[in-house]
């Protein structure tokens, strides 16, 4: 067992000693990716249509195809994913009131990830979960209105799709009553602790 899993097990044991019961609210990474895409599609469609009908006339469209297009697209994904995970960390660091001590960054299968190392109240956990969606998703929409074009449009799509799994988690969090929430160190989601 790695040290992150050990820390997670310690949190669970401490909360059980305090009389809390747990409820597992996790989904596999593969399922989170698939369901996340479906959750993001409405945002992509709405803002894609706004882009198409309001901004395309002044858009800076790149004349790229083939390998060049894929290089640009992969660069957008790489930069967006790193910033996305960093924003989760910023959200939990701020919402917990304990700074970066509560945040853990990791790389799994060449992908960065971020987890909160302590159990948080519902609203604090939710703040960290939704920070990338709000900042990157709607920041991309703002940017596309200022500088419409191929890169800004692709960036908007990537940022909303990247936050799709976060929306699933946020919807589950909103259904919880009085709970403490511990971010799962490996799976998408959390363990809810209630009395």
Please explain how this structure is put together.
The protein is α+β, with helices and mostly antiparallel strands and 195 residues long. It is built from 6 helices and 6 strands. The protein has helices at residues 3-17, 29-55, 66-96, 122-146, 150-162, 164-175; strands at residues 21-27, 103-108, 111-116, 119-121, 180-183, 188-194. Strands 1-6-5-4 form a 4-stranded antiparallel beta sheet, with helices on both faces. A two-stranded antiparallel sheet has the order 2-3. Strand 5 and strand 6 form a beta hairpin. The chain is elongated, with a radius of gyration of 18 Å.
Q: How would you spell out the order of helices and strands?
A: HEHHEEEHHHEE
Query: Proportion of β residues?
Result: 15-25%
Distance between the termini: 28 Å
Question: Main β-sheet, in a few words?
Answer: 4 strands, antiparallel
Q: What is the CA-based Rg, rounded?
A: 18 Å
Which runs of at least 5 residues are low in confidence (pLDDT < 50)? Answer: none
Q: Indicate the percent of residues in helices.
A: 55-70%
Q: Please report the total strand number as a whole number.
A: 6
Output mean pLDDT.
90
Strand order of the largest sheet: 1-6-5-4
Structural class: alpha+beta
DSSP helix count? Answer: 6
* Basic shape: elongated
């Amino acid at each position: 067992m790695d040290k992150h899993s050990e820390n997670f097990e310690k949190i669970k044991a401490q909360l059980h000693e305090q009389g809390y019961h747990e409820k597992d609210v996790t989904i596999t990474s593969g399922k989170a990716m698939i369901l996340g895409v479906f959750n993001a599609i409405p945002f992509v469609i709405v803002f894609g249509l706004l882009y198409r009908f309001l901004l395309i006339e002044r858009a800076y469209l790149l004349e790229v195809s083939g390998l060049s297009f894929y290089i640009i697209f992969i660069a957008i994904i790489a930069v967006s994913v790193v910033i996305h995970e960093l924003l989760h960390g910023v959200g939990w660091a701020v919402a917990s009131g304990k700074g970066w001590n509560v945040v853990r960054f990791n790389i799994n299968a060449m992908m960065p990830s971020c987890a909160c190392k302590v159990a948080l109240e519902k609203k604090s956990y939710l703040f960290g979960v939704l920070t990338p969606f709000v900042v990157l998703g709607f920041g991309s929409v703002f940017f596309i209105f200022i500088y419409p074009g191929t890169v800004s449009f692709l960036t908007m799509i990537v940022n909303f799709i990247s936050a799709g799994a976060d929306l699933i988690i946020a919807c589950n969090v909103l259904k919880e009553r009085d709970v403490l929430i511990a971010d799962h160190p490996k799976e998408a989601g959390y363990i809810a602790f209630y009395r």
